[in-house]
């Protein structure tokens, strides 16, 4: 299995665990947004939205830049790529397990009929 810095992955998974932050990430995928724009779909205050952005910043998912009085955020996709790579291990694991299950169940046309299947043909 590929090893990653546990603390870094922990911060990313923590950030992504909240649906508000996931929506913010999705919005930022379309381009830069200021804190007010990120807060708008949730009818939350600037302070509350800023707290969410701070969590995303600590995870490395967002970079904030102050432009005058506006705090503009942009998505930093590198941590998401690292998470995807981490998840690939488990995808391969489960695909292998499902392939083994399919083989064990004899998922082919040559398997013998069960008693129930014979009764259904009547």
Can you walk me through this structure?
With 122 residues, this protein is mainly α. It has one domain: Orthogonal Bundle (Arc Repressor Mutant, subunit A), CATH 1.10.10. The protein is 60% helix and 11% strand. Strands 1-3-2 form a three-stranded antiparallel beta sheet. Strand 2 (62-67) and strand 3 form a beta hairpin. Helix 1 runs antiparallel to helix 4 (46-58) and helix 1 crosses helix 5 (78-104). The longest helix is centred in the last third of the chain and has 27 residues, at 78-104. The chain is elongated. The mean pLDDT is 85.
Helices, strands, pairings?
Elements: H1 6-16, H2 19-29, E1 33-34, H3 35-39, H4 46-58, E2 62-67, E3 70-75, H5 78-104, H6 115-120
Antiparallel strand pairs: 1-3, 2-3
Helix pairs in contact: 1-4, 1-5
Number of domains as seen in the coordinates: 1
What would the CATH topology be?
Answer: Arc Repressor Mutant, subunit A
Percentage of residues in helical conformation: 55-70%
CATH architectural category: Orthogonal Bundle
Unreliable runs: none
Question: Cα distance, first to last residue?
Answer: 52 Å
Strand-and-helix sequence, N→C? Answer: HHEHHEEHH
In total, the number of strands is: 3
Average of the residue pLDDT scores: 85
């Amino acid at each position: 299995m590929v090893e990653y810095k546990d603390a870094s992955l922990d911060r990313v998974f923590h950030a992504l665990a909240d649906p508000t932050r996931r929506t913010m990430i999705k919005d930022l995928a379309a381009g830069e947004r200021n804190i007010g724009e990120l807060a708008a779909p949730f009818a939350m205050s600037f302070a509350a939205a800023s707290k969410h952005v701070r969590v995303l910043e600590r995870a490395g998912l967002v970079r904030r830049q102050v432009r005058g009085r506006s705090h503009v955020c942009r998505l930093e996709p590198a941590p998401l790529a690292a998470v995807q790579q981490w998840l690939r291990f488990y995808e391969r694991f489960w695909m292998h397990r499902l392939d083994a299950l399919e083989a064990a169940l004899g998922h082919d046309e040559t398997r013998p009929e069960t008693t129930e299947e014979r009764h259904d043909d009547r």
